[in-house]
Structures are given as structure tokens and as C-alpha cells.
Amino acid sequence: MKVRLSKDPMNVIITGVGGQGNVLASRVLAGMLVNSGYYVTIGETFGMSQRGGSVMSHLRISQKSIRSPQMPQGGADIIIALEPVEALRVLTKYGNPDVAVLSNSRVVYPIGVITGELNYPSLTEIQDILQKTTAKNWLIDATGEAVKLGNPVLSNIIMVGALSATGLLPIDRRSFEKEIARNMTADKRPINLLAFDTGAGLI
Amino acid sequence: MGNEAIARGALEAGVNVASGYPGTPSSEIIESLAIVAKARNLYVEWSTNEKVALEVAAAASFAGLRSLCAMKQNGVNVASDFLLHLASSGTRGGIVLVTCEDPGALSSVNEGDSRYFARMLEIPLLEPANFQEAKDLTRWAFELSEEIRNIVVLRSVTRMSHASGNVICGKLPVKFRKAHFVYDGSIMDPLRGPVISTPVVAKHTLQQEKLKRATAIFENSPFNTYSGPKKPELLLITSSACFLYSREAIGMLELQKRVGILKLCCTWPLPPKLLKKHLNSAGKIMIVEEVLPFLEENVKTLAAGMAGEIGIKKFYGKMDGTLPSVGELNPDIVAAALAKIVKVKYKTLSTAYTKELRKAAALIPARELTFCPGCPHRASFWSIHNAIALDGREGFVCGDIGCYAMGALFPATGYHTTPTLHSMGSGTGLASGFAKLAAFGFDKPILTVCGDSTFYHAVIPALINAQHNRADITFIVLDNSGTAMTGFQPHPGLTVSAMGEAVPSVDIAGICKAIGANVAISDPFDLEGTCKILNSFLADKGSLNVLIMRQICALSPEKKGKKIFDVQVNEALCLGESCGCNRLCTRIFRCPALTWDRSKKKAVVDEVICAGCGVCYSICPQKAIIRTEAKKK
Amino acid sequence: MVSKAAKPSSQEILKKNVLNADLCTGCGACVNLCPYQVIYHDRTVQLHRCDLDDGKCRAFCPRWEIDLDLLRSSLCDSADLTTEIGAVKGYYLSRAADPKLREIAQHGGTVTALMELALTEGLIDSAVVSAGNQQREQSGFKAKDKTSLRENAGSKFVVSPTVAAFNQIAAENSGNIGVVATPCQALALAKMRLKPLQDDAGHIDKLKIVIGLFCGWTVSQEKFQALLLLNNIDPATITGMDIPAGKTALVIKTGSGEKIISFDHVESCIREACRYCLDSTAEFADVSVGSARFGNEWEEMRGWNQMIVRTARGSQLVDLALHRGILEVRKAPNGILKELKEAAAEKKRTALKNIIRKSGSAKNLLYLESSDPFVNKFLEKIKR
């Protein structure tokens, strides 16, 4: 399903905390888009940053060419966050008045907050910032739904499912099925498909 | 992924042998090749260290095969001794040294720029500037290596190796080479003589002729490209990921008609004719690269030599401070520099919006790196800290490279003990040195840690040194059964090779015993037992004591997602902030899965991220943390 | 940021003013109340940083902010007070009536006899005494019966973190407790009895009797062990130790006979903190017991104890012991009490001099209030 992008390139950031499945989410999403014929450039970091730190993947989706693996500041069109404060962190660097933010509402506390040295903003504060600084935003309990499905790690796929339902990108259930058929062992596909559908249902 | 593209390029070139040592951002090259090793008739290994890896690859080259050796920037330093000799002796089958570097040190403890090795050791250097080139240039590097009969360095960076983009694959060769090592020819015969660097002057002359051949080839290489106007107002000369940043920056400022980009893939030696042509076309030149001004120095040297013909140019780059010579670049940094030079406005967001973002930024807590939930290192360092505190002589730990390097980071735990952190194996060498300072009034117990993979990589000589020179140290192996930081590559302590074959394991305890050390083994999750052994070691003067703390990494494939315990907090017993506890678990132990409920003023387990190691149970003074054997799923 | 103000924490205060100032007696008062302080060998170690500024560790430390006036007025009858040896309700020369107990005792066996009585009468459920391991490293030991009490009778010379054991046992729902305490330990327990922190009220109420030991000094376990090794004495073979009156040597009894270590050597092992201690008779115990060593009558008196009854609780126990015939008492020779007082006063003067030398000023008495009337009497004597 290759359709004209509303903007070229479309700049997507997937962010979260090391270990939340950020990399997998970006691979799956990129795979779905590449299968549909787009150029997708992903910039990501892993290694040390995965150890409890903030992680971020930049996806540059284009009909014409590959792009820089780092997008310009203020240049995000869509931010997908597996953790709410990470949505804000990315927003403050890559946000602009037209940005759409889709964030998981489940909190992963940074060490500084656990020790009591730092504060974690309240859900109201987070919602307030999103209202003031984004064109569209969704805050969904992907982790809660994933736990219901039996594995919190599925929250990343739930987020991809939710993203498909926002209509922001040319992706749908069929492109997801196609992608997991290529990259996932058969035993894992049903639960991931269920997670995708659950996510889509949250929007 | 860039690394997969490099691996694919090697496969298309018909690589026969691939070796390396894991290191971010290089590891996926060898991993990708290992997956197809059997199908493509390859030999792939994770070597003990980078120097050995390069020697393994060189042997294949000497036997006429094509070989690739991959490592991160630090690895080139390790391999450099052999590399110097290899560059002098020359090679036969195509051999490519891939170095994946880490500008900005996103997953390193330095941002070393190893391009200088190519210049210093007089070997060609290639730098791909996009994913397609990562593949194509790798394939071509083998041809170049065979053409000049010397090793070729291919340099990637994190934003190339760990970035992904569309790549069109080429054909894979159908024929496989056979190994032949011929050494009965004359000493100066590059294909039939012995492979040595003597007679030195004659061989050095030969080596420099090879480099000249490479220069000539580079003049016409299709990988060096120019895009932009014929007479640009400003010429950008760039390489690697910086090409993508530069192109993006030009697009952001809509300067396509005013600024040109000369993208070089062949960055040492620089092709002078090509450079002359482009330097001639513009009066202002900006060199965009990471990290040090390597390209800038070389371009300027050429330009100085040609000044009579091309005139005096105005250069911008790192040397004049237009661009930073530390950290990684990005499109914004390049755009800001461009905007300044060509005097255009660099569009920004409205002030009202930026103000909102700034307000938001003030509310965002920093997220510091820490040990994962269930990480054995958190427990290990707890015992190490306590043993040092109990000992009371202000002992300290010389740190080393691996996840446990976070023992040196304060926010990671509330009990850091590691004031030094250098290259792999250096902790043991430093400890060995510190332990000899007693004669100068420095009488503190010295400890050092290393991971299991690091032990084989570079620790053994330092450990022998400590024993032989009677350095009284407590040496700790944080054995988590794999090269955890880089993704669980096997190492000599394990019984499976990179290619998945059964191999004999080399026993760390056995090596230490053979060196003459006292060796004990503990489970770091047994805090009390581990601490007791450490204290007995610290009190035992005059001998080399080794404690192997053995517990598998919480992220390892065999352990991930499998909890030993279900852990909960009994709120009625939790003392919280009261005197008698004062949040020992959340304030000092700092497991990300054990958080603090500010309204209830009680500790609480985040079951989603708890790995179920149960160590927090052992530290709770109230026994308010309850652990029960996990139900099997 | 919600971090706490930069007021020094209790732990920092103790580290700076007690541990690093060599004033820590190793009594264990700050141990087993929380996970932050532990005793290792006979050193108090702060394992991790605690930022509370009103901690029990500081509140109970016998070497920080000691208000002797308040302790005396709260715990003693003012009529009983003496400047040299604290409150004296009664003064006896005593010994255990049981000859078997006297055989294993250091002197008269009074301490063990009183504790046995307290246990058998149900006054307490356990007694905390000092017990050593083979390296003569001491720890508080919970004795629940005669046998275990008798196994640990005798002078140890090495300080024991007895109060740490009390803290632990008190937190274990273990019923009423008696403690055999050195003067510093008795002082820590007295501070606790003033209940400076509400949430521990229940614990300290379990403390029913404190039998104090006369104490001139203790030795550091690590230094003492080194000294024993230097003299080829295996600590594990030691059966007893004594300083005979009038002798300047420590007699060590081992399985293979006696060994004598010159007092000069022993002195180098004395715990630094002991040099700043004013109390040689455990002034804040309920009953204090010591040897009855008198220069001229040593041989005759060595089997007896001096016993000072200080509080009503102490009186009750001693009266009961006399009534049951557990203790034998005899008339004290003339001048003994005076001799005891003089020795105690001498220790106070020496300690005060050491304190002033350390602080650099007679106005700064480290852990003591310079305004305390009793302390002031001795200060004036030093000045003269």
C-alpha cells in the first residue's frame, strides 16, 4: 500500500528506556514501510545506552532517497514513546507545533527519581505539556494491555498497532502480517498479531 | 543495518575467513557472517582479542584467501602492533580491516579516531557514506587489497554501522577459493616469497609504491562523488555519515544551488588531481568530518602544495573552530556552521513554542545509566564495597571495560568504588602498579575487576605480572558467562563457537591457579558469603588472590524473562524513610525495579521490570521484601 | 529537586566527631538499629551513607552530646550521688556463694551470680554478656541459662559490641533483658533509657537490669592479637588473663602455663578511646562490680568483688541475692571506698587532661558539657 506521504521525508522517532523493545519496534515499523516500497533510514544507538538509559530510534521515511540517520532538531513529525517522560524528552529536542505524539502511559522511573533526588512529573503535568506542544497526542496504557496478554514486552507491538490506527503512516494490519511472516518465527506470530490488534483498538 | 551491509559486501566479494572481537558498534558484522557461515562456506570466529583476530585473518590472506577482520576503534590500537608489521610485509588474498568507530562515545569510554593509523602505517583508508556504499565499498576493498597486495582499512561510525537504510544487493559468488601458502620464492617476491617485513628499507619502498598505486586508483574511483553547482560559493569536503548530515543541512537551508559537496570515500591517501579540480572550483571550503581534523589536515597539506596553481583558499573546519573536534556531528551542527558562512537565516521555532518546550524540559528527570534489574554486577559491587568498608583501609577498585564499567559511575549505584577506568585489561595492570607503591607510603588494599571476556582478551599478562612481581592485589572476575555488553558473543570460556560449533572451554580458575594465585569462586547473589571471602583476601597479605564471582547476565538468552523469585514488599514491615532503614534499597541499592512510592512512603516492586533475582531480599533490614520461588510459566 | 538540606547527618556527625576522632568505644550502641553501621573486628564501620539528621545512632552514642546532669537526675537519687563514683546506694565486698562459680570467675563471681539469679527468678529472659571467639574477638552473646552464662564468665580485656547485641535481641520479641556492661556500654544504655526516640520505647523497656563492670581500659582486638602473636601465644589456647595488683604486667594463662607480657607492651594496645573515658565504675549501671584489689591485701581479697548498688532496681536484685544466700558479703576493710574514689578521681583527671589536649581548650570537652557541675570540680583540680 504505497501512498503519497503527506510530507517527505516523514520523520518518526521511537523512544523509550533500554530493554523496552525500542529497537524491535523500529525494525518492525521500518520493515512494514520498506515492504511497501519506501526508503527508510533508521538511526539508532544501542550498547551502553541500553543499560537503563534513554534510547531513541530515528526513522526517516521517504519516497525518494535515504536520509541522514539523525534528523534535525524540531523536525519530528511523529513521536512514539514507550515511556511518557521519554516522549517529553524527545519532544523538547525534536518537537514542533505540528508533531503528533503517541505515548505509552506506563512509567519507568529513572534512578534519580528512585533515590529521591529527582522528581517525576505527574500524569496531569505530562498531559498538559502534550496539549500545549503537540498537534495531536494519545496516551495509552500499552504496558497494562501487554501484561493482560501475558508479557509486558509486547507493549512495543501494541504501540505499533496503535500507530497504524492513527492513520499517520501508510501501515496497516496486512503490512504487519507480511513483516512478521518474514522476521518472526511462526510460534510468535499469533500473540504479536493479537498485540497489534489490541493496540489498534486503543485508538 | 550498516554492519549488515558491510557483511553483505564481504560475502559478495567471496570472503572466506572473518574474525573479530566484539565491540559496539562493530559486533553485528561478525554476527551476520556467522549466521551464514555454513551456507557460504566461511570460517568465522570471535577471537580472543583484536590482535589475534587480525593475525587469524592475515593467515587466510597469506594463503590466498579473502578475509575480513572487524573491531571497534579501540581494537585497532590493540591490533596495531601486528598491523604495522602486516602493512610492511604485505598481503596476498584480499584482506580488509573494518573499524567501527564511535564519535560521541555513545557506547565507548573514548571517541578515538583511528583513521590516523592508516596514515601512520601507510595503508589505504576507505569510508562509506551511505548504506549502499557500506556494502559496495567493502566488496571493492577486497579488490583493492588484492590489486596492491596490502591490507585496506574500511572505517565506519556508529551512525553508519547502527543505522539502517535501503540497500540493493548484488550477486553472491558461486566459486570458493582453495588455500595455498607458497613461500619458496625470493624474499622480495610478494606472491611467492616468505611474508616478512625484511629487508626493511626495500620492503618499505615496496609498501610506499603500493600506496601510490592506491592513490592512482582513487583518482578515478566512482565512490568519490561531487554534487552541486559547477562553481559553488562554498565547497563542503566530507566523508562517512557526515556526508548525510551535510546533505541534510544543505537541504534544510535550501542551499543546493550555492553549496557543493565533495564526498570522499577514499580518504587516505587523498587523490591529489581530484582534489585539485574541486579546490579550484571554490574559494571557500569547509571540511566536515568526525572526530579529529584528519581530512582537514590532509586536504590543507595538498592545498598548500598546490597553492601556486589553485590560489589561496579560505578553509573552515575544526581547526578554526567552525565545527567542534569533539563529539559527534549532526545536521543541526553542520547547518548552523553553513548558515554562518553563507550568511543565511537558520530557521527556528517560534519563541512562544520554544518557551513551552523549555518549561517542559525543566520537568524532565535525567535518566542515568544503571545496572539492569537482576544484574549480577549490582550485587557484586555491593559486596566489594562492603568488604572494602569493613576492611577500613580505604581500598579501591581499578575498573575495566564492560557493563561493570558502570561501577565507576556514581548514579548507577549508591556505592561506587572504582576510581580508574581505562582500556581492556588495564585495571589489572594498574592494580599491579598501585600495589607496589607501599614503599612510597601508599598502603591501601588494591582490588581490580574484569569480565570473563576481558580476562582472556588482555588481563592474563597483567595478572602474570602481578604474581611475578609480588603485587598484593585482590583480583575479581565478574563472570557473567558471555560478552554481555555487546550482545552475548561467545568467548574462550564457553563451549560454543561463533559458528555454533562445540569447542573446548578454557577455564579461568585453572589459568589463575597455574599462575600461582589463590582462587575462590562465589555466587555474587550470596552477598554475605562473597563479602566474607573478599575480606579474607584483603586481610591476606603477600599473595595474589582471585575471586571469580559467577552469575549469568540477567539479559542473557538463557536467563532473560525467567525469574528465580517473585518479589514483593510487605508494606506493613517496610520502614521507608524512618531511622532504621532510610530507604536503603531505593536510595543506595538502586535497582530500577525497586521503586519508591512517594505517597505511601514505601518501597514497591515494579513487577514488569523486576528480573526476580531476589537480591534485594538479602539487603532489607526489616525483611520487608519477600521473595518466593517463582511460579513456572 | 527534593534533596534534603545540607544539615550534617547523624552519621556524618559521628564519623567526624567520634569515629575519626578516635573516640569510638566500640560499644555497639549504633549497631543493629539500621543497616548502615556494623562492627567489624572491634571497629565501628559506616557501610553506606545515611542522610537522616536525627538518627538513633547519634542519639545513643556514649561519646556524643552527653548530658551527665540529665542522666544523673533522671536515673539516680540525688542523695546517693558522689562526684567520683556516681550514685552509691550501697557498697559491699561480695562474692558468689557457689564455690564452683568462684573457681571459674575472674574474682568473686558476683556478676555471674547476680545474672543467674535474675534469669532463674524470671526477672529477665536473657542476659547479654561478652563472649569471645578463638581470636579473642568479642561479641555480645545472648545467655538464656546458667550454663551459657558460666561459659562466658571472666575478664576479656577486649571491648565487646554488647549494646549491638542488646539492640538485636530487643528487636526480636525476646522478653526482658539484662546486660553486663562496661562503663561506656552502660552509658549508652542509660541514654537509651531516656528514650530520646519514641519508636524504640518498647525495646528499651525490655532492659530490666544493667550490671556494670569496673573498667580502666580495654585493648584493641587487632593490636592485641598482633601482640599475642609476637609473644608466640595462640589466642585459642588462652584460659584466662589477669593483672596482679602491684604488678606491671599482664599474666596470660594458657593450657601450657602462664606467660607474662610487660605492661608497656599492653599499653600500646589500649584502645585510644579509653584514654578519654571519665568513668571507671560504670556509674550508670544498676549495680557495678569490680575486683577488690588492694595493694596490701591482694592475696586475701582477690576472691572478692567490690559492689556498688546504684539504683532501686539494683537494690532489689542485690537484696534478693542476699536473701537467697546467692551472694556472700563481708565487711570492707577501712579506707577501701576512699581508695576506690581516689582511683576513680585520678582516671577522671587524666581523661579530662587528654580531652583538653585533644580539643585544645578546656571549654571544649568533646562529648561532655563543660558546664556540668561534677565535671567542673575535676576541671578546677586540673587547673590547680
Topology (SSEs and partners):
The complex is a heterotrimer of chains A (203), B (633) and C (384).
Chain A: E1 10-17, H1 22-35, E2 39-44, E3 54-62, E4 78-81, H2 84-94, E5 100-104, H3 111-115, H4 123-133, E6 136-140, H5 142-148, H6 155-166, H7 173-183, H8 189-201
Parallel strand pairs in A: 1-4, 4-5, 5-6
Antiparallel strand pairs in A: 1-3, 2-3
Helix pairs in contact in A: 1-6, 1-7, 2-4, 5-6, 6-8, 7-8
Chain B: H1 2-12, E1 17-20, H2 27-35, E2 43-46, H3 50-62, E3 67-72, H4 73-89, E4 95-101, H5 115-121, E5 125-126, H6 131-148, E6 152-157, H7 158-161, E7 163-164, H8 200-219, E8 225-227, E9 234-238, H9 241-253, E10 259-263, E11 266-268, H10 272-281, E12 284-288, H11 294-310, E13 314-316, H12 331-342, H13 351-363, H14 376-391, E14 396-398, H15 426-434, E15 446-451, H16 452-468, E16 473-479, H17 508-515, E17 518-522, H18 527-539, E18 545-550, E19 565-569, H19 584-589, E20 594-597, E21 602-605, H20 615-619, E22 625-629
Parallel strand pairs in B: 1-2, 1-3, 3-4, 4-6, 5-6, 9-10, 9-12, 12-13, 14-15, 15-16, 16-18, 17-18
Antiparallel strand pairs in B: 5-11, 8-10, 19-22, 20-21
Chain C: H1 10-19, E1 37-40, E2 43-46, H2 56-60, H3 68-75, E3 81-82, E4 86-87, E5 90-96, H4 99-104, H5 110-120, E6 126-132, E7 138-143, H6 146-151, H7 162-170, E8 177-181, H8 183-193, H9 201-205, E9 207-213, H10 221-230, E10 238-242, E11 249-254, E12 257-262, H11 263-267, E13 287-291, H12 298-301, E14 305-309, H13 312-324, E15 327-330, H14 336-359, H15 373-383
Parallel strand pairs in C: 6-8, 8-9, 9-13
Antiparallel strand pairs in C: 1-2, 3-4, 5-14, 5-15, 6-7, 10-11, 11-12, 13-14
Helix pairs in contact in C: 14-15
3D architecture notes:
The complex is a heterotrimer of chains A (203), B (633) and C (384). Chain A has one domain: Pyruvate-ferredoxin oxidoreductase, PFOR, domain III (Pyruvate-ferredoxin Oxidoreductase, domain 3, 3-Layer(aba) Sandwich). With 203 residues, chain A is of the alpha/beta class. Chain A has a 6-stranded mixed β-sheet, with helices on both faces. In chain A, helix 2 links the parallel strand 4 and strand 5. Chain A is 41% helix and 18% strand. In chain A, helix 2 runs parallel beside helix 4 and helix 6 crosses helix 8. The longest helix of chain A has 14 residues. Chain B folds into 4 domains: 218 residues, 3-Layer(aba) Sandwich (Rossmann fold), CATH 3.40.50.970; 118 residues, Rossmann fold; 175 residues, Rossmann fold (3-Layer(aba) Sandwich), CATH 3.40.50.970; 65 residues, Alpha-Beta Plaits (2-Layer Sandwich). In chain B, the strands form 5 sheets. A 7-stranded mixed β-sheet of chain B has the order 2-1-3-4-6-5-11, with helices on both faces. Chain B has a 5-stranded mixed β-sheet with strand order 8-10-9-12-13, sandwiched between helices. Chain B starts with a helix and ends with a strand. Chain C is of the alpha+beta class. Among the domains of chain C are: 199 residues, Aspartate Aminotransferase, domain 2, CATH 3.40.640; 47 residues, Nuclear Transport Factor 2, Chain: A. Helices cover 36% and strands 20% of the residues of chain C. Chain C has 15 helices and 15 strands. An 8-stranded mixed β-sheet of chain C has the order 7-6-8-9-13-14-5-15, sandwiched between helices. In chain C, strand 3 and strand 4 form a beta hairpin. Chains in contact: A-B, A-C, B-C. Chains A and B meet through helix 1, strand 2, helix 2, helix 3 and helix 4 of A and helix 7, strand 7, helix 9, helix 12 and helix 13 of B.
